[in-house]
Each structure stands twice: as C-alpha cells, then as structure tokens.
Amino acid sequence: MNSAITGCEHPAPLRGDGVLSSHSDGQSRKKDGLPRSTSSNHLAYDILDIPPWYICIFLGIQHFLTALGGLVAVPLILAKDLCLQHDPLTQSYLISTIFFVSGICTLLQVLLGVRLPILQGGTFAFVAPSLAMLSLPAWKCPEWTFNASQVNTSSPEFIEEWQKRIRELQGAIMVASCVQMLVGFSGVIGFLMRFIGPLTIAPTISLVALPLFDSAGSNAGSHWGIAAMTIFLIVLFSQYMKNIAVPVLVYGREKKCHTTKFRLFQVFPVLLALCISWLLCFVLTVTSTFPSAPTAYGYLARTDTKGSVLSQAPWFRFPYPGQWGLPTVSLAGVFGIIAGVISSMVESVGDYYACARLVGAPPPPKHAINRGIGIEGLGCLLAGAWGTGNGTTSYSENIGALGITRVGSRSVIVAAGCVLLLMGILGKIGAAFATIPTPVIGGMFLVMFGVITAVGISNLQYVDMNSSRNIFVFGFSIYCGLAIPNWVNKNPERVQTGILQLDQVIQVLLTTGMFVGGFLGFLLDNTIPGSLEERGLLAWTQIQESEESTKASKVYSLPWGIGTKSCTSSRVQCLPFWPRLEHGGKGAGRASQLTLCSQDSSGEHQKGAAETRM
C-alpha cells in the first residue's frame, strides 16, 4: 500500500529510504511564500507517522523506562502481604510476569483498542483493595514468614503460603475484569460520555497526578541532589535544547554512510537524563561516595541496593497462564477489585482525552472509548490468568512523556510493547532495569506528574472560566478530590457499615482522588443550571463533529480495513464498539490508510497538507 503524505514537522525530514536527511539550521520552511518558524508546539512525530525503526526502538525503550517505576513498584508493594518480603527471586518472577503481560495488553490496546499511543501496565487502583483483602484474618501471613532465618524459600510449605494468596488475587481480578469488559463492549461507558464534559475530565486528569506528589517527593527525597540533577537534565533537554540538531552517523541506500543532523534532545530527553543520572550514581557507588548503611541518607541512590534480584534472576523465563496454580474466588476480593475497576475506568477515560490532546488527535469517539475500556478489561483478565497479582490500565506517566518528547506516533508504543514482552522473557535484563536508583525515578516522576496535571487543567479552555458556576464546580471538585481521600486514609475506622465487603468498596472509592473529583465534577456539572456553551459542551461537541469524518476515521478505525473494507454489514455496524462508516461506506476505507509527512522536491510541504499541533 502506497502511503499518502500529510503534514507534520519532524526533527529532520524523512527521505524515501527512511533515513533522516540533513537540513539547514535556522532555515524556516515557507508557506504561501512567507517564512514560517517552527512552533514549539509542533509534534516531532504525529500519531499516524512511522519513525525509522531505530528511532522506534530507542523511543520504545524510553517509554519502558518511564513506566518502569510503576511496573516494579506494584509487585514490590504486594510482596509483604503475599509473604514474599524475604524471597527476592519470586519477586523478580512477578516483575517479569507483569512486564510480559503489560506488553501483550499494550499491543492489544494500540492495535485493537482505543488505538491511541498509550502504554498499558499495572494499576495502583487495584493495590488498595488487594491489600485490604490480604489484611483479612484468613489471609494474614504467619509470623514465621516475617523472620528471614525461618524462611526456606524452596520448601513446599512456604511456596503454598504465598501461592494460595496470589491465586485468591487472581480469581478476584478475573471476575472483576468481566465487569469491565461488559461495561466497555456493551457501550455503557460510551453512553455516559454524552454527560461527561470538560468540567468532569479536567479534575479527573488533574487528580491522576496531584495525589502522587507525596510518593514522587519521597522517592526524590531519598537523595535530592540526584533527583534535582535528573529534573534539570530533563528540562534542559526537552525545553532549552530541543531545537539543537546533533550530527549523527546514518546509513542509506543512496549515500551509504554519511552524517545528518537530528534533534536528539527533543526526541530522547527522558532516556538521556536517566542514563546520565544512572551512570553518575554508578560511579558514586563504586567510589563509595554514597553511604553503605541502609538507614543512612543517600543509600537508595546506590546502584547495588537491589543486587540480589539481579544475581538470582534467570536469563530466560517464559511466564504462562496458571503458573501459580488454579485461581480461587471470594466475594470480599471480588467486590474490592470491582471498586478498583471503577476507578481505573474513570482514570482511563481521562487518559484517553489527555493523550489525544498531546498527540494532536481529535477527541476519541464513543466506539473507540467503548473498545478501549473493553480491551482494558480483557487485559485485566489476562493479568489475572498469568498471575501478576494486579490488573492493567493506561499509564499516566507515559502520557506525560508524550508531552515532553513531542513524539505521538503509535508505532513507538508498539515498539514499547515489544520491549516489554522481551523484558518479560529475558529475566536477567529485566531485573537489571530494576536497579535504577530511587531518586532518579523520583525526579522523573516529578516532571511527568507536573505535565499530566497541566494537561488536565488545559481542558478548561473550552469552558467559560469567567462564569462563577464553572469556577465553583472545578475548584470544589479538585479540593474535595484532595481533602476527602486524605481524611479517609487517616481515619479508616470511621468508615464502618458493619458489612466488610461494603466497607472495602466505600473505602477504596473515597481514597481515590480522581474518582472523588471526577464524580463531583460530573454530578455538579449535570445538575447546576448552565448553558451548553457555558459548560464547554458546545465547543467540545463541535470539535468531535468537525474531525469525526476526517482524521478521527484514520486514528480510531480498526487496522487492516476491518469495519471499512471488510465486516461492514449492518448487523456488525450496530455493535457499540465497532467503527462507523463515514461518507459512502466502503469508499471511506481509503481514509483509514496510514499516512506520513511529505515534502515536494523543493523541500516545501505539499499543498493542502495538514499541520499537526498540540
């Protein structure tokens, strides 16, 4: 299939052979005979662009590193309540399994789900109900498992102790995931979208990152010098040096080996900052500059604090469904995880809109949202079957990385999914990435969470913020989304109804800031009188309608012509998650072909080429 070429700005233009060609520094392109400078809001790669394969690999690794902290944190948080605090080898197995399943779910989401460049990974929304379930008297770890001298990690007794707990988690996650698939594929979530506007989305997205300031600050506070250097490097590369073209050596069919200029700092700011900070920590560890006492300040900046995981992990290990045994199910676990599913769905819908804004895509239509939530439910089912001890959801950290790198190509996320699959199989290499020092991860998260918060607030541009109604709705939702979870976390004993399962559901919901803020925004926005224009729904709807038949059909349609060239019967079109035919049925299939950016022989954009802006 010959791809047509549409406009977008690359760090360096692409030639026909896919090699980055050189360009003159400071020379602006022209439009209508007038020079036009490159805007700081231009994307390096649009969602429909396909960067060269080597760029995709490096960017995929960068996304993997961005998600690494969350992916590794979930199994390590659960380790104590699974009786695994003295079994680092099994912990590495859980980490490899969550890598592998996250890779599968990422590929499913990008290819068949919402089709936005969103990485899938373990969700913290499931951690609270999981810990609540494991804290029940029937599932508390025996006292002898807390004493390292009494734990024999290879004994059948110890293996059964932790495996029966993770099997209980597996069963609860698998049953709860069926609810998420039902809500997604039945179109319930798409139906609710007609009542969800900017005043619901803005507090939801903002509260994804705002409550995490404590954990990000704690990680960075393990050594503020290293964290500050990581932040400085990310900001330096992504904001101040983004337009600097670095000479690189490339190989092409025409010119063979030659040099070209590439905006390295704009595309790889996070990866470069992590590598430099990691290397500095390694040098300071080898030279014994960092303290060796575990309780001393700066110890977590050492690169050998997790050396036991690296030394004991096997080189190759293939995770498989049911590797811990047959899952079991209890009512308390299912109700608790369902509360996590609700929070995860609310967060994911907000992530879809945030990601679409950052990559220059139109807001996702209902069928794409239905499909995305349904595929996330399928991902949770797979995570439960494989035994990660957790589900999967869209990763907000990687959406923040999209805003910093300005690379919105979903081909990069496909590469990231393949990297996750590989790391899940190569246990030794995956464990090596787990040795990234804690303050480096904390510094990266501080930058990412700031970007996510700003993206959430930017949705208010569609709303009349001169209206006292809208100011109240947004301000009250944000404040309650911070205050109520903080109070419930400090006073869990006050939330008691006498029914344990109901208490768990209420506690999980009220301690999830994005659920509290999003629910209040949804309730107040739909009950307090206000015009459609004042609420931002008019502009919101116009944007969706204006781009529904053009770029939206390319971004959110299924691959390989499904729904446009094949499977176009009226019965299939009635499915809530199936893409709608636009302007003439099968003829619209041509609009869903993948397109790239192009230039004519003079280096100017072809006439009619569209510009992609954030």
UniProtKB/TrEMBL annotation:
Keywords on this record? Membrane, Transmembrane, Transmembrane helix, Transport
Q: Which InterPro entries match?
A: NCS2, Xan_ur_permease
Q: Does the keyword section mention Membrane?
A: yes
Region (Disordered) spans which residues? 11-37
Chief subcellular location equals: membrane
Q: Where in the cell is it found?
A: Membrane
* CC annotations in GO: plasma membrane
TM spans, by residue? 52-79, 91-112, 172-201, 221-241, 262-286, 324-342, 412-434, 440-459, 471-488, 508-528
Query: Pfam families recorded for this chain?
Result: Xan_ur_permease
Membrane topology annotation: Multi-pass membrane protein
GO MF terms listed in the record are: transmembrane transporter activity
Its family remark reads: Belongs to the nucleobase:cation symporter-2 (NCS2) (TC 2.A.40) family.
Q: Could you identify this protein by its name?
A: Solute carrier family 23 member 2
Give the species this sequence originates from: Rousettus aegyptiacus
